[in-house]
Amino acid sequence: MSRQNGLMASPLQMEFVTSADRAGTLPPTVAEVAIVGRSNVGKSSLINSMANRKGLAKVSNTPGRTRLLNLFSLKDGGAIMDLPGYGYASAPKHMREGWAEMIEGYLLERDSLEMVMVLVDGEVGPTKLDIQMLDWLRSMEIPHTVIATKHDKVKASRRDQRKKDLAAGCHLEPRDVVWVSASKGTGIDRLRSLVLTWLS
Ligand code: GDP
Questions:
Q1: Rounded CA gap, 104 and 116, in Å?
Q2: Ligand 1 atom at minimum distance from 38 CA
Q3: The total number of structural domains that make up the chain
Q4: Is 55 in the pocket of ligand 1 (CB under 6 A)?
Q5: Measuring from atom 14 of ligand 1, which residue has the nearest CA?
Q6: 70: CA distance to ligand 1 center in Å?
Q7: pLDDT tens digits, residue range 98-149?
Q8: Is 61 in the pocket of ligand 1 (CB under 6 A)?
Q9: Staple partner for 122: which of 17, 22, 24, 148, CB 3.0–4.6 Å?
Q10: What is the CATH number of the domain that holds 89?
Q11: Cα(27)–Cα(20) distance, rounded to whole angstroms?
Q12: Residue 26 pLDDT more than 80?
């Protein structure tokens, strides 16, 4: 639960704007934070949790259901881009390639892009595709931050070690990774504040 006091960011006031199948057709924004991650990593749940609105981004147990670039505007200015989940293993190869093209096109072309939140499943750790995404973002010098999801699914006794291992798997220091739980609200206020900072 988020508490509103001086140190906490209140829920992000977000509205869905539009979906597009390529970056070129999106309306311009002044500043944008994009969210990327493999299907089922908890992306929709995280967006809903940041906005404190169930159903804003569709939560689905069907991996890869979000197949378009989904743009949300923030009342305080700026926008959030919900990118299609990658790594939908059972999708035909040409479709997977289409998604990669859509995601990469957006990440390379979007002038207002300030930060990419790379969601990594906190329980599972970085997958091969997560590492590929991180390597690619580094090689393109696109600013990005790793967000580890599902903090509540890691047993308390194993958390310290998991935090070290997940960070090391991403070639980062533990302090560079933001841990969240959409279910329990852990880390959500901090992430809201970070998003507002990136957009300001
Ligand atoms: P997306 O495909 O990345 O948008 O993932 P979803 O938000 O649809 O979540 C995938 C599954 O993980 C759903 O069953 C969610 O209920 C579950 N999930 C998402 N976030 C959390 C979390 O913080 N904790 C737990 N325990 N489950 C979560």
A1: 12
A2: 3
A3: 1
A4: no
A5: 61
A6: 18
A7: 788 899 999 999 999 999 999 999 999 999 999 999 999 999 999 999 999 9
A8: yes
A9: 148
A10: 3.40.50.300
A11: 10
A12: yes
Whose tokens are 């988020």? That residue is 2
User: 48: Cβ below 6 Å to ligand 1?
Assistant: no
Tell me the residue range of the domain where 85 lies: 3-199
Q: CB–CB of 32/81 below 8 Å?
A: yes
Q: Which atom of ligand 1 is nearest to the CA of 63?
A: 2
The residue whose CA is least distant from atom 2 of ligand 1 is 40
Q: Confirm or reject: Cβ of 70 under 6 Å from ligand 1.
A: no
* CA 190 from centroid of its chain's CA atoms: 14
CB 127 within 8 A of CB 89: no
Strands 69-74 and 79-82: antiparallel
Taking residue 46's Cβ as centre, other Cβ atoms within 10 Å add up to 26
Nearest CA to ligand 1 atom 21: 150
- Dihedral of CA 44/50/51/53: which sign? positive
Residue 38 near ligand 1, beta carbon < 6 Å: no
The band of 76, judged by pLDDT with boundaries at 50, 70 and 90, is: confident
How many distinct helices (H) and strands (E) make up the chain? 5, 7
- Looking at residue 4, its pLDDT comes to 44
Asked if pLDDT for residue 65 goes beyond 50, the answer is no
Q: What angle do CA 43, 46, 48 make, to 5 degrees?
A: 110
* Atom number of ligand 1 nearest to Cα 182: 23
